[in-house]
Amino acid sequence: MAYTSSQVVQAVPTGINSALVFIAKTTLTASTQHNLLNVFSATYDHYLVRFTNLSAAGGALNMRYGTSGTPDTGSNYSNNGIYNDDAQVTTTSNRYNSSSNSLVGNTAADMGTFLEISSPFLTQKTTYTVSNSSLSGSGIISNLIRGTVNTATSYTDLVLTSSVNISGVIYIYGLTNS
Amino acid sequence: MSKTTIHDIALGKSVTRNMNSAELAQWQADKIESEAQAKAESDAKALNDAKVLSAKNKLKALGLTDAEVTALVG
């Protein structure tokens, strides 16, 4: 297909050939846990997850994977990252090994978050990278976190969990291999 | 009672319900783990802040101005 210079190439619906394919959108209302079933499949190896107005104010937001409705709560999750708080002009490193979940973001409201997940459905280690930022008073706090699951499990589900209610809108995209 | 929402992405349906006993136990364990991680972060930051302050004071004792110290270590 030919494009003119004024056209914008966007993610397209399932069934149309594209490198980035929109899979689903769902609204997260006030629950402390959201279990998203049948997110990952053999169709894609890599996924991009975008959140808008994501809030878990007062508690960290974590995630884990699951298979057919059963979350993997084993101590196989490890991640490290950098947390910036410009109100205090500080940078702090985070490092968690053998945890039962992975960190998505620290205490914040209205986090703008991008999450990239690689190989969740394949029987190999799943990795992820997440970046987010939000306002904390007059300053911006941000996270850049990377992590892995130290098991070669095939996952279908994504579970978001927090000690406080999670709300926002989640958009899920698949990245084609070719 | 904490709630969980099940979103079936393939079917486009969402159901919110109270957590069952197993889910609630896991959620409580997650909460304890998360709070421990937050405390570890807070403790590490406080320790680092103390080291930065100590370093600044030592630099000032060597004769550096506040502006020069800030330029070096923020």
CATH topology type of chain A:
Jelly Rolls
Q: State the total count of DSSP E strands of chain B.
A: 2
Query: Which structural class should the secondary elements of chain B be placed in?
Result: alpha+beta
Tally of separate domains of chain B: 1
Task: Give the amount of beta strand of chain B, in percent.
Answer: 15-25%
What is the strand content of chain A?
over 45%
**Biggest protein-protein interface?**
A-B, 38 and 31 residues
Principal-axis shape of chain A: globular
Distance between the termini of chain B: 46 Å
What is the makeup of the main sheet of chain A?
Answer: 11 strands, antiparallel
Question: Could you list some keywords that capture this structure?
Answer:
heterodimer, A: 178 residues, mainly beta, Jelly Rolls, eleven-stranded antiparallel β-sheet, globular, B: 74 residues, alpha+beta, 2 helices, 2 strands, 66% helix
Provide structural commentary:
- The complex is a heterodimer of chains A (178) and B (74).
- Chain A has 178 residues and is an all-beta fold.
- Chain A is built from no helices and eleven strands.
- In chain A, strands 1, 2, 3, 4, 5, 6, 7, 8, 9, 10 and 11 form an eleven-stranded antiparallel β-sheet that branches.
- Chain A is globular and about 50 Å long.
- The two termini of chain A are 16 Å apart.
- Chain B is an alpha+beta fold and 74 residues long.
- Chain B has one domain.
- Chain B is built from two helices and two strands, in the order E-E-H-H.
- The model of chain B has no long low-confidence stretch (mean pLDDT 89).
- The A-B interface holds A 23-24, 26-39, 59-60, 62, 69, 71, 73, 83, 89-90, 92, 94, 96, 99-101, 103, 106-107, 161-163, 172 and B 2-12, 14, 16, 19, 23, 26-27, 29-31, 33-35, 37-38, 41, 44-45, 48-49, 74.
- Strand 1 (20-37) of chain A pairs parallel with strand 1 (3-8) of chain B, so a sheet runs across the interface.
